Amino acid sequence: MSGELSPIDKAKFVAAKRASQFVEDGMRVGLGTGSTAAWLVRCLGEMVRDDGLRIKGVPTSTRTAELARDVGIEVISLDEAKWLDLTIDGADEFDGELNLIKGGGGALLQEKIVATASDQMIVIADIGKEVETLGAFPLPVEVIPFGWQTTQALVEETLISMDVLGRTSTLRMNGQVPFITDEGNHILDLHLNRIGNVRQLALVLNQMPGVVENGLFIDICDAVVIGYGDGRVEVRDINEGTVATERLDFVESDNLFSDLGD
Ligand SMILES: O=C(CO)[C@H](O)[C@H](O)COP(=O)(O)O
């Protein structure tokens, strides 16, 4: 990559860089998916290479697995790890209780399984991801391809009795063909605008035949590291009830910026 990082990439990078400081020698770490998580993987790769950090990474997508291997992180499966010390991942939205919408990158199923199998989950995000109420970002719902249109009709019908503002959905596409997840499924993006009761919606969606998982992450995230375009980072820990702000110094000529990827 040449030239300066955009403020949004700077924000994503500083969030990832700060979060990498939570990773300790010997940890089994869940590695998220998306552009912010990709920064994290690069930062960890640098720590493995330059500082001798020894970690085992469990990626949440084939994309992240490839990147992790490329930067020298030892990759193992969740079944090999069994349980993780920490997962660090991006998010599409987070609210004041650190409930999340995830799945913008289509990896919500593995992301939720991995985050749930971790002692701690930390979200890394630019400040633009913070919302008062979840739902402006379309809610991804992973559905099996068999009868997906019937599942979509059922989902939309169910939304009539839910506390949401919008009730339409679209099949996620990859060009001219439906997007296929790592698990071979499709994704319906629900255009809800505002979700009044996230717990109820998450439960109801997951009870429907054909729905594999939804992108609402409730009571899973422990802390969020928020990056700003000017290099500030804020760490909010929901369990400790603490908020700390600092500024990270970094050099844009760093090797890390040579390949933005994702
Ligand atoms: O949930 C995700 C992938 O399924 C991502 O974490 C989410 O979409 C955020 O992505 P980015 O860091 O690129 O903004």
What is this structure, in a nutshell?
The protein is built from seven helices and 17 strands. By secondary structure, the protein is α/β, with parallel strands linked by helices.
Could you describe the 3D structure shown?
It catalyses: aldehydo-D-ribose 5-phosphate = D-ribulose 5-phosphate. Catalyzes the reversible conversion of ribose-5-phosphate to ribulose 5-phosphate. This protein is globular. Helix content is 28%, strand content 27%. The chain is built from seven helices and 17 strands. The mean pLDDT is 95. Strands 3-2-1-4-7-15-16-17 form an eight-stranded mixed β-sheet. It is of the alpha/beta class and 262 residues long. The chain folds into two domains: 162 residues, 3-Layer(aba) Sandwich (Rossmann fold); 76 residues, ACT domain (Alpha-Beta Plaits), CATH 3.30.70.260. 47% of the residues are buried. A hairpin with a 5-residue loop joins strand 5 and strand 6. Helix 1 crosses helix 2 and helix 2 runs parallel beside helix 3. Ribulose-5-phosphate binds next to helix 2 and helix 5.
CA gyration radius, whole angstroms: 18 Å
Number of domains: 2
CATH class term of the largest domain: Alpha Beta
Helix and strand pattern: HEHEHEHEEEHEEHEEEEHEEEEE
Low-confidence stretches: none
CATH topology of the largest domain: Rossmann fold
Assess the beta-strand content as a share of residues: 25-35%
- In which order are the strands of the major sheet placed? 3-2-1-4-7-15-16-17
How much helical structure, as a percent, in the residues? 25-40%
Mean pLDDT score: 95
Write the CATH architecture name of the largest domain.
3-Layer(aba) Sandwich
Any idea what the shape is? globular
What is the total tally of β strands?
17
What bound compounds does this protein have?
ribulose-5-phosphate
Tally of contiguous helical segments: 7
Distance between the termini: 12 Å
- Based on secondary structure, the structural category is alpha/beta
The major beta sheet can be summarized as:
8 strands, mixed
